[in-house]
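Lab meeting notes turned into a lecture example. A postdoc, R.K., suggested we walk through two folding results consecutively so the class can see how the record format repeats. The first protein's sequence and structure tokens come next.
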Amino acid sequence: MPSQTRTIVIAGATSGIGLATALAFARSGAHLVLLARRAEALEDCARRCEAAGSPRAIAVPGDVADPAAMQELARRAIAETGRIDVWVNMAGVGAVGRFEEIPLEVHRRTIETNLIGALNGCHAALPHMLARDAGVIVNMGSIGSRVPVPFAPAYAASKWGVAGLTDSLRHEFRSRSRVQVCGVYPTVVDTPAVVHAANHSGRAFTGGPMLSPTHVAERILDLVARPRRALRIGLGHAAVPGFWLAPEAAGRAFGRVMRRGLDRGPRAPRTNGAVLAPMPDRPATTLGLRTRAQHRLAVTAIGAAVGLVALGGLLAGARRS
């Protein structure tokens, strides 16, 4: 039966920020319509959401890169609840390593999931929202939507694309409707995405400055309540102006930092992670790699380093002039 209770659609709901966001909306009493590739994990997520307070959580297995699956997700939401109030394009994967050592299929699939998946979701949700002249779309970007990410170029390309898609749609629809399109841009988050990423570096990721997925989910709920163009989460965004002021110097420094980080981690087998097929682990929001002390120290060091690099680049440019 149709209900006036809000209906929240989340594409990519069984892990990390997606699961944390689903549970946060469940606690607010919303209906949930959830999509992910693995049916068993998705049913588990739906049960957890109903236990957390959602009057109804509907599991719709599918792949965000499949436009038919996203159209079916929208159809089920409308058929089961009568409406789509919020659509969250959350699904995301990554691939780390030297560009030429990552299989081309993994690069391509990363872009299909992160960018084409968001495009498919917007195309499925917007006709219903435009007909009602109401609704909020949330697209998941990252700090990688704002700065280059050496050793993860397909991820960066997809996230820059998500930012361009989000802003373009936002300004188009604000000129002819009340539908809101918003982007979320967190820094690194302590989620299973760390181990779900394809990793062809031969080294394991050991942690660093990280946000809590629960904190990101709470901020997304606030964004839906007060829609705006961009929600940037994490102190690491303070380093972004360094890339604007001295892109070559800052980029070289960041590339060296990334290379050293990859070279110094413990040895690990090369893997395609969850890029080509979902992994069999139980749904979880976090890996537990984050500590507040690490976060504060690392963000301070990164911000200072990029700031100094930018300043040095500007001084060098002034001397050349």
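The second example is placed directly after the first for contrast:
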Amino acid sequence: MPRIVTFRTKLAIYIYAAPAEHPPPHFHVVGPGTDAVVDLRSLKVLFGRYPRRPMQEVLAWAAANRHLLEARRDELNDRE
């Protein structure tokens, strides 16, 4: 599971590669007290546990870098 970025809060974004991946397009946020899945399109937490404030930083970064997350997901899952 490639790590995409790590934040000062020690939370990190990961994207799984196929065949472990499943719809909808999403990424994982993992760290102390955190194990969550976030929809890549809406940036809504689909499920998991997370601290609110550190997750706000992650979601703000994801919104500003959605193109990078989508490109990395496509690369890992052999999509064009």
